[in-house]
Design brief:
The chain has four helices and 16 strands. It has 322 residues and is mostly beta strands.
C-alpha cells in the first residue's frame, strides 16, 4: 500500500538507515498513554481502541472538515479518530475547577539566589499498576477467527464484522524464531492464513488482536477430526459454543476464568453451551480441552461490546488467577 513501506533512503539518517530496512512496513510505534480532558470525557473512562499520532490530526479533520493527504489509507483503516473517547450526548455542566495563576510563584522562585540543579535519583522502583478497574468506552470491533484442518495444515479465517478494521498478530509457538504474521482485515471482510504442521505433526498458534482479543489453537495431526469443528457464536449477552456430533466421546471440558473467583471447570455434555456476559461486563476467557486428547486446546478470550451496557477495563489484569 502506497506510503506504508520504507522504499526511499533517508538522507538525514544515512548512518542508521541501512539498506536492509528497505521494503519493510512502517507500522505503528510503541504504545504511549494519552489523557483526554474535556467536558465530554469526565469520569475516568478508558478507551482501548487503536490510535496513533495521526488520530489527533483526524480528530481535527472531523471537527473542522478538512483532509490531510499524508495519512495513509492503512492508518485510516486501522487507527481511530479519537471520537470514540467522548460522549457528546452527555456533557457535564459543572465548571472545571478554578486553576491558580502560577506566574507570581514562578517569578518568586526564579528570583531565589544560588538555586541548585536537582539530580535524578540513582535508583528507581519499577512502575506499578493502579488497582481496580475503570469504566470503558464501547469499541467498534466485532472480531472472529475460524479454523479448518486439512492436508497437513491448519487454516485460520480472520473476520472483522464491526465498523473498524483490525490487525491480527499470529505467533507460531512451534517456531518462535519466526516473526509473527500479521493480517489487516477491513470491516465486512475476511482473510485466510495457512500454517503447516511442524515435523512432529504439531500446531500451536497464538492470535492477538485489539483490546485483549485472543485465540489459541493447539493440537496434533492425530487428533480426532471433529475436534476442529467447534463453532463459537457471540452476541452482546452471551458466548455460545456449538459442539459437533460425537464430541462426548472425547470428554471435552471448559475452564472458565471468572472475575475474583477460582477457575470454573465444566464438562461439556450437551450439543451447545452458553456463558452469559452481563455479570462480567462483556469480558470472557474460556479454554476448551479434552480429557483423552492431551495435545488439544482451544482458548477464546476478549470482550464483547454492547451499546446499552457500560463496560470496564480488563478485569483479569487486576485480579490474581487462582
Amino acid at each position: 500500500m502506497a506510503g506504508s513501506y520504507h522504499t526511499e533512503p533517508s538522507k538525514g539518517d544515512a548512518a542508521i538507515d541501512l539498506a536492509a530496512y528497505r521494503g519493510r512496513p512502517y507500522g505503528l510505534g510503541p504504545r504511549v498513554p494519552m489523557y483526554v480532558v474535556s467536558p465530554w470525557s469526565r469520569g475516568g473512562w478508558v478507551n482501548s481502541q487503536v490510535f496513533d499520532h495521526t488520530s489527533v490530526i483526524r480528530f481535527l479533520e472531523k471537527r473542522f472538515d478538512f483532509h490531510e493527504p499524508n495519512i495513509t489509507p492503512w492508518r485510516r483503516a486501522v487507527c481511530g479518530d479519537l471520537t470514540s473517547a467522548f460522549d457528546f450526548t452527555a456533557a457535564d455542566p459543572a465548571p472545571f475547577a478554578a486553576m491558580p495563576d502560577p506566574r507570581t510563584d514562578a517569578a518568586r522562585a526564579a528570583a531565589i539566589p544560588k538555586q541548585v540543579s536537582p539530580q535524578a535519583p540513582a535508583g528507581s522502583s519499577p512502575p506499578w499498576q493502579e488497582p481496580g478497574i475503570r469504566r470503558a468506552r464501547p469499541l467498534p470491533y466485532a472480531l472472529t477467527v475460524g479454523e479448518t484442518i486439512a492436508d497437513g495444515a491448519i487454516t485460520l479465517r480472520f473476520a472483522a464484522d464491526g465498523t473498524q478494521a483490525a490487525v491480527f498478530h499470529v505467533y507460531d509457538r512451534t517456531n518462535l524464531t519466526q516473526t509473527p504474521r500479521r493480517f489487516t482485515v477491513e470491516p465486512g471482510h475476511a482473510l485466510d492464513g495457512r500454517w503447516p504442521f511442524d515435523h512432529e505433526g504439531r500446531y500451536d498458534l497464538w492470535v492477538l488482536g485489539p483490546n485483549g482479543f485472543h485465540r489459541h489453537f493447539m493440537g496434533h495431526r492425530d487428533d480426532p477430526a471433529l475436534l476442529s469443528g467447534l463453532i463459537w457464536r457471540a452476541t452482546t449477552t452471551e458466548m455460545t459454543l456449538l459442539l459437533p456430533a460425537g464430541h462426548h466421546t472425547h470428554k471435552l471440558i471448559a475452564r472458565t476464568e471468572r472475575i475474583g473467583a477460582t477457575t470454573l471447570v465444566t464438562p461439556l455434555t450437551e450439543a451447545q453451551r452458553s456463558w452469559p456476559l452481563s455479570k462480567s461486563h462483556g469480558w470472557y476467557d474460556i479454554t476448551i480441552g479434552a480429557a483423552n486428547v492431551p495435545n488439544y486446546l482451544r482458548r477464546v478470550s476478549g470482550r464483547i461490546d454492547a451499546p446499552d451496557r457500560i463496560t470496564c477495563s480488563d478485569p483479569f489484569v487486576m485480579v490474581p488467577r487462582v
